[in-house]
Amino acid sequence: MTQILRPSSAGGPNKWRPALVRLVLAGTGGAGLALGQAPFSMLPLALTGLIFILLALRLGSGSRQGAATGWAAGLVYFAITLHWITEPFQVDAATYGWMAPFALALLAGGLALFWGAAGWVAGRARNLMVFALALSAAELLRAFVFTGFPWGMIAGLWLDTPLAAGLGWVGPHGLGLLSVAICAALVSPGRWPKLVGASVGTILGALGLIFAPQAPDIPADAPIIRLVQPNAPQHLKWDPDWVPVFYRRQIEATEAPGAPDLTIWPETAVALRLPRDQSGLERIAQAASGRPVILGLNRFEGARVFNSVIALDPVGEIKTRYDKAHLVPFGEYVPFGAVLGRFGIHGLADTDGGGYSAGPGPTLLDLGALGLALPLVCYEAIFPQFGRKLSAQARVMLHLTNDAWFGDFAGPAQ
Fold first, then answer.
1. Which of 140, 178, 157 is nearest to 383 (CA)?
2. Res. 10: pLDDT tops 80
3. In sequence order, what E strands does 268-394 have?
4. What is the DSSP string of 225-274?
5. d(CA 196, CA 191)
6. Of 232, 250, 264, 320, which is the most exposed, with the fewest CB atoms less than 10 Å away?
7. CA-CA-CA-CA torsion for 387, 388, 389, 395, nearest 10 degrees?
8. Is the predicted pLDDT of residue 346 greater than 60, yes or no?
9. Which residue has the higher pLDDT, 275 or 59?
10. Which residues, including other chains, have CB under 8 Å from residue 296's CB and lie 6 or more apart?
11. pLDDT tens digits for range 70-112
12. For residue 393, what pLDDT is reported?
């Protein structure tokens, strides 16, 4: 078993030094690990950071110290990895800008509790391999609890490497477990753990190179897909003076020379409000010369509003639609919104005051000759289990998103 070393318990003026060293080492490790995520993708630095975290755990002597070490590492890791969540608050900075640092601190601190729990378990067991298992379990729990937030998983370190092929075999949680377990073996006392860790890492690396997927050849008769975007800064997107500009840009792009088999506009592409603005859909179908068009917009049913994806027929009628089912907490809706709305607290993406309503769940869009598509809207794409039962029937996965909320750096890259 891999033992966590117990530091000296000497008192005196230096009694806080071991704790300070441990927390600084954990925080530094969390920072290094975060720099392995996009857009930095510094894999060697990330693995070094992970080793720093494990070394910090080795300096602990019990569950409380393990919990503090895990939480400190997680706090820095999530603060750096998710720093882009402050961007939406700057769209209307005069109203929401003051919330940005609090939102980041609360999110990073809250997510770090999962790492703190893993550190508590490892400190109690005094075993680094237990930490690998506990952290993997905590990350799995993070993907589901309170609707889930599986962003910034450790497996993301490998996305630009051949080892990303492992995601198809063991998923993000399995690949994360292997990453932590191998590093834990390498920093454990004794020769055999290091030898086993190095051997397993070498074998997995070789398998990744051998089984790395190759891009398929594109057949000559493959369908041509036209992707349209309005280049709309979020702070101007709903401005009445700019709405016609963005609509016209997408119409002109749809009318451009060529004969695509499918044209796709993004999430909430236009400020049309269904069913009132049906004539706008007819104009879009006309621009596409009767060929299929898919776009995102807000759809209304009485007082309810949905973030919808629709497929148009040749005359602009809605052939099939999907209403986003997994909404963004505090973005598209606010928990206990009926109460908090009385105090002027609404979701950042809520343009009508009441928040979005969730659709019934995953569905398939019929694209005619192009087959069936599994639609995902923005946030839904980070949940690997979302729509899994339908994915086998779909020819493609169709992901519509509006990344203008998240700046032009880490958010869109991740």
1. 140
2. no
3. 273-274, 293-301, 304-312, 318-323, 365-366, 372-377
4. EEE------TTTTT-TTTHHHHHHHHHHHHHSSS--SEEE--TT-S--EE
5. 9
6. 320
7. 80
8. no
9. 59
10. 265, 266, 267, 268, 269, 307, 308, 309, 310, 377, 400, 402
11. 999 999 999 999 999 999 899 888 988 999 999 999 999 999 9
12. 93
297-302 long-range contacts, Cβ below 8 Å, gap at least 24? Answer: 297/268, 297/269, 297/270, 297/272, 297/273, 298/268, 298/272, 298/273, 298/274, 298/351, 298/352, 299/274, 299/275, 299/323, 300/273, 300/274, 300/275, 300/276, 301/357
Q: Which amino acid is at 97?
A: G
Sign, CA torsion 171/176/179/185: negative
DSSP code at position 329: B
Phi, psi of 121 (to 5 degrees): -65, -45
If you average pLDDT over residues 283-289, what whole number do you get? 95
Does residue 114 surpass a pLDDT of 90? yes
* Confidence band of 212 (pLDDT split at 50, 70, 90): confident
At 45, the amino acid letter reads L
Angle at the Cα of 102 (from 97 to 103), degrees rounded to 5? 85
The dihedral formed by the CA atoms of 29, 32, 33 and 39, expressed in degrees to the nearest 10: 160
Select from 187, 203, 202 the least CA-distant residue to 129.
187
Q: What is the pLDDT of residue 331?
A: 77
Is it the case that residue 271 has pLDDT exceeding 90?
no
For strand 225-227 and strand 273-274, is the pairing parallel, antiparallel, or unpaired? unpaired
Which of 156, 140, 159 is CA-nearest to residue 82? 156
pLDDT score of 110? 97
Tell me the two tokens of residue 402. Answer: 């509006």
- Indicate the range of 126-140, 258-272, 353-367 predicted with least confidence: 353-367
CA 229, CA 247: separation in Å to the nearest integer? 10
> Which is more confident, 165 or 249?
249
Question: Six-digit token pair at 391?
Answer: 């994915």
Residue 347 is given by DSSP the state -
Cβ atoms of 57 and 132 closer than 8 Å: no
DSSP category for residue 315: T
List C-alpha distances in Å: 55 to 23, 29, 107: 11, 9, 26
Q: What angle, rounded to 10 degrees, do the helices at 43-58 and 100-125 form? A: 50
* Paired residues of 376 in beta bridges: 399
CA nearest 164: which of 154, 8, 405, 360?
Answer: 154
Evaluate the omega torsion of the peptide bond into residue 275 and state whether it is cis, within 30 degrees of 0.
yes
